[in-house]
Amino acid sequence: MIPTAAQAKVKTVYMGVPPSAQKTLNDKLNSDVNDFFPHSISVRVGQNVRFDPSGFHTVDFPTRGARQLPLISATGTKLSGVMDAAGNPFWFNGQDQLGFTPALGKMLYGKSVVYDGTKRVESGLPFANHPKPFTVRFTKTGDYTYYCDVHPGMKGVVHVKSARARVASVAADTKAIERQVSAAEKQAKRNAHTIPPTGVVYVGSSGPHGVETYSFFPSAVTVPIGTTLQFKMSPNSYDVHTATTGPGDPMRDSNSYLGKLAASINSPVFDPAAVYPSDPPPNLPSLTPAAHGNGFWNTGVMDTSPQTSRLNSSGSVRFDAPGTYEFYCLIHPFMHATVTVQ
Question: What is the pLDDT of residue 9?
């Protein structure tokens, strides 16, 4: 006998790498996977799916025909009076103040909701410590694609079948997760050997299905004075990064210039110097220890999605003075690279 939806077990989807695989992927391989585990799941109509926040991701089920929500939106305020360390106004005065899209601040964690395609279900950002899973009950048959609003390209599918249809068992879903984890680990090992084109530094390295390795490639470069380097998102990345140099180590010194910029990205409204390029595009800026009064240069927040027109996918800078320049990603401040100019 086929069990009814009410009798069927609640199925679980991990929002990111399952906890059992995080030690290998996160710690040993310095990587993560911007995907849902399992990527695709089948349930009967009326059945519940439990979404477990195992990483910094959202679940966004739009209404039929609608797009996912953007991570970053204008707040409605124009920037003014933002100065660099030399006392000069930044170019982005007059541009929009940016912050997290407000709808992402309304969290569903620990709650239960119903989805039938007529009203958006949005988990919100998992800012709380140890957020609880939330549950979605699917009341209409169909194939429903859902998204992570943090990582463009990250999506999963829920196939909702009729009440008497055959669907994969929980044990089969577990096997699918194991295969997904195994493939991700193999891809992360390949990512570690990424070699970018000449004159390019990749900020992160990405592979199929959202496998992202959190390093600069290469992480150490020696160049002559006058060299231009392009800091660029790796092809097909689902992630968001910056390449930023200036005073301080944002990982170890939260009170430093870069530390404060990095901290602002965890607040509802961002410091504009963290998210906008430090210099007006498409100009090629000159980097010296005196740039902006303190040696500051920033790509701004980057991704590869064509839907986020506010964000670039790369930034270039010319090194015009000898010295050692330390670069960080303000979003993932443990990412570090050194450029030595001779």
Answer: 79
Q: Name, in order, each residue with C-beta under 8 angstroms of 36's C-beta and a sequence gap of 6 or more.
A: 13, 14, 15, 16, 57, 146, 148, 154, 155, 156
- The secondary structure of residue 190, as a DSSP letter, is H
Does the reported pTM lie above 0.70? Answer: yes
Mean pLDDT of all residues in 228-243: 96
Give the pLDDT score at 2: 41
Cα→Cα distances 94→78, 91, 247, 299, Å:
5, 8, 26, 19
Asked whether the beta carbons of 90 and 278 are under 8 A apart, the reply is yes
> Does the CA dihedral 243-244-249-252 come out positive or negative?
negative
Asked if the domains 11-72+101-189 and 194-341 are classified in one and the same CATH topology, the answer is yes
Q: What is the pLDDT of residues 316-331, one digit of tens each?
A: 999 999 999 999 999 9
Q: Where are the domains of the chain?
A: 11-72+101-189, 194-341
CATH of domain 11-72+101-189: 2.60.40.420
Helix (H, G, I), strand (E, B) or coil at 299: coil
**C-alpha–C-alpha distance, residues 24 and 19, integer Å:** 10
Q: For 235-242, what is the mean pLDDT?
A: 94
In this predicted model, what pLDDT tens digit does every residue of 163-175 receive, in sequence order? 999 999 999 999 9
Q: How far apart are CA 28 and CA 25, in angstroms?
A: 6
Distance of CA 57 to the CA centre of its chain: 8
DSSP state of 96: E
CB 237 within 8 A of CB 150: no
The amino acid present at 134, given as its one-letter code, is F
Residue 17: name the closest of 38, 40, 46 by CA.
38
- Class of domain 194-341 as given by CATH: mainly beta
